[in-house]
Amino acid sequence: MKRIFVVAFIVGYIGILTFGNVCHLLQYGVSSHPLMYMIVWDMFCGWSAYDMRVKIIAEGESETYYDLTKAPWGELHAYGYIGREHYDHFNSHSGAIAQNVLKHTCHEPIVRVIVLDECWTKKLNLPDSVWNLRYDMPKDWHTYYHVRTVMLPDGTVTKRNDCFLTHQGRRMAYDNPRLVQQSLVGRPMFLSEPGAGVSGESAAGLPGARLPVASPSAN
Predict the structure, then answer these.
(1) For the CA atoms of 44, 47, 51, 54, what is the dihedral angle to 10 degrees?
(2) Which run of H or of E encompasses 25?
(3) What's the pLDDT tens digit per position in 121-178?
(4) HSE (CB half, 13 Å, CA atoms) of 206?
(5) How far is the C-alpha of 27 from the C-alpha of 7, rounded, in Å?
(6) N or C: which terminus of the chain has fewer CB atoms within 10 Å of its end residue's CB?
(7) Cβ 69 vs Cβ 83: under 8 Å
(8) Helices (H) and strands (E) in the chain, counts
(9) Coil, strand or helix: which one is 168?
(10) Which residues are registered as beta bridge partners of 112?
(11) Chain centroid, CA 4 distance in Å
């Protein structure tokens, strides 16, 4: 009986890991449930030099912009001080968040919903006391906005772009003739990156630009 239990455990364990690898390869259901994070093979994705936040903006018929990122009834902080919408790296749930806020608030008819990436270098997060000890220059804060998704009010996606980091990486590669030539020579057999082949677009290109938004009033 003990041997049967051990064999069943090994078979189940390997089967679950195989299922996770196949889902990661085919990009099928990788964010369908929180438990998928435990079996999808993307545990060692590395770190970025940029800090990123999500901005969900709704545009009304009168060209008034509403900030849907933080709902009037408060924001859920699942891990620390950052809201849950900022953990959605693949932008899978921004549409549902926008529809939920629009459903429970008063506003004019909405034309479209825009999801933006707000990015800046992580070293700017250092406190002033630590910054002054490490650097001899003052902070030169640059914030960049990048259009991630454009949706209709019902959640239908009309335009989808890569994230800011992927877009910038591809721009650097395309500006280097040597890298372009190498990419043509060695193409992978399987391409499993989400959003591969999708172009990028920047918004408010001036560093440090701030978008004019107005929070919708609650019912």
Answers:
(1) -20
(2) helix 2-26
(3) 999 999 999 999 999 999 988 899 999 999 999 889 999 998 888 888 888 888 888 8
(4) 3
(5) 30
(6) N
(7) yes
(8) 5, 8
(9) helix
(10) 59
(11) 44
Within a 13 Å sphere around the CA of 67, how many CA atoms are in the beta-carbon half? 14
User: Distance (Å, rounded) from C-alpha 146 to C-alpha 118?
Assistant: 7
Distance CA 36, CA 57 (A): 29
d(CA 28, CA 21): 10
Residue reference for tokens 């749930």 = 93
Q: What's the farthest any 2 CA atoms get from each other in the chain?
A: 71
Express each pLDDT in 25-83 by its tens digit: 887 887 777 777 777 766 555 678 889 999 999 999 999 999 998 888 888 887 788 88
Q: What is the pTM of this model?
A: 0.65
Instruction: Find the angle CA(198)-CA(204)-CA(208) to the nearest 5 degrees.
Output: 120
